[in-house]
Every structure is written in structure tokens, then in C-alpha cells.
Amino acid sequence: MTTNKESSYPWGTAQTISEGEGYKVKRISIHPSQRQSYQEHEQRAEAWMVVSGEGKITIDGKENDVTTAAIVMIPKGMKHRIENTNKEEKLIFIETQFGLHLEEGDIIRHDDDYGRHLDNWNNVGVEQL
After folding, report:
1. Secondary structure of residue 124 in the 3-state scheme
2. What is the pLDDT of residue 2?
3. Which CATH architecture has domain 2-118?
């Protein structure tokens, strides 16, 4: 099924472009000098393909630079984050999620620049996402 649902976050935007049973595909845009939370998922694995920009990924504490055409596989339960290291341009990547539970409730945050890890989804309103 094709969708175009877009969600805004402090770090950028995520647009669901396709989903079906066991998978979801999103176009993720990270604002300049911003990063996602350091997080993991218990119910899904992810594959990322950078389509524009440059940044840094952290997977289980190990950092690597990424640029256009980089492909990153993130197994279920692996801590990860991506950061836009450019101060002017967005970092854009395609995220493909695989698993039985593909909703935001499967995020376990370990660190977050916006304080969302303190709640870890307890008492967090939609406006705070």
C-alpha cells in the first residue's frame, strides 16, 4: 500500500511512502546539525540507504561516517542513531523497517537531545514526538 503520511520531529521529518504486512518504507530527512535519539527496537530490524547528504551513524557505540549511496543494516535489538554533520544541507535517507510491530511504540530511547529518553514513551503526548 502506498501512503504519504508525514510526521514532524525536533530533528526533522519522516514520510511513510509505502507499507504492507511486515514492512514499512519511510523517507527520513534530518535537519542540519541535528540527530535522532540513540535507540533500539525489540520488534523490528531496519535498513537505511542514504540518498542525499552526509552524516555519522552510531551502532552499538561504534561511529562511522556515511554519505550518499551508503547502506546500513540495523538488526533487531541493536542500539543506533544517525546524525547530520552538515551545517547547511539536510541528510536524507530511505528507511525500510521489517518486523511484526512497526509502530513508534517499539522505540526504546537510551539518549535523546530533546529529553524524550527520560519518558521512554510513558506519558508522552503526540505533540512531543
Report:
1. coil
2. 64
3. Sandwich (2.60)
